[in-house]
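#struct-pred
JK: can someone run the complex with zinc ion? inputs below
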Amino acid sequence: MFHKFQSRLNLQGTVETQTAIRVGAGRSTAVIGSDLPVVRDAEGAPYIPGSSFKGVLRSYVESILRSFTEEKSIVCNPTNNDEQCITRDEMETLRDDRDDNNWNEQKYNAKLLSKTCWVCKLFGSLWYASKLQVRDLYVQEDLWFGQYQQRDGVAIDRDTETAVSGHLYDFEVVPAGTPFDFHAIVDNATDWQLGMLYLGLSAFEKGDLTIGGASSRGLGVITLTLDSAHYIDKTKIMDYLTKDDKGDDANWESWIEAFKDRIDKQLEGTDAQTDG
Ligand SMILES: [Zn+2]
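RT: done, structure tokens with the ligand placed:
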């Protein structure tokens, strides 16, 4: 939908494990369930799939928005079709309307946008491309010496969170203090969307979020340290591409203000923004 360059935010930093993190079962590189996000690469070194990091970030941003409103057009539940901001049926109707009435792409996009919730506008949905890409987080090689550790665990029933008697298993962890490279790109996000993103990132900076499951046993705490955040808007794109110009430093304060402003207007009922 958006083929026009508007802006890019380039984020770089380090994610460090504060406690041990579980590694996906077995020696395969497949992710075993979404709550086991640390896996091994082809050489056996651990990495955190970007999609795992993004998933935790998204859930946290959803929880912040839900503290303000339960409105589906602001924050939907992407895991349940009936609770998504645009359900499959609604999408079918929208496409039928477009075809029956010969809408141009602009009109169709405007309709799509008016229904897409704030979270999906940044993180994407089935119908809307994500503006945020988080690269896979690879362990910093000069600090990784294969130091996996074994833990004994008791199998936990996922539904009841009680121990399944007689089911002991071993699992591997990456120890505390392991650093991973973090790199994320946000394309064409609006100011308020970047402010919303910051709330999630800052929770990672504070060490409030966990990945990898078993957080009740103290596993999976990570902290994010951002080393650089560069913003390239459309007036800087030529310098960015042709010279060694990294762009401007991120203007988090004004983006957070834009987000707060939009929340306030939403609560007052005066929010009239229709941007993507
Ligand atoms: Zn949504």
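RT: quick notes.
DSSP finds seven helices and eleven strands in the chain.
Residues 7-144+177-268 form one domain.
JK: thanks, will look after standup
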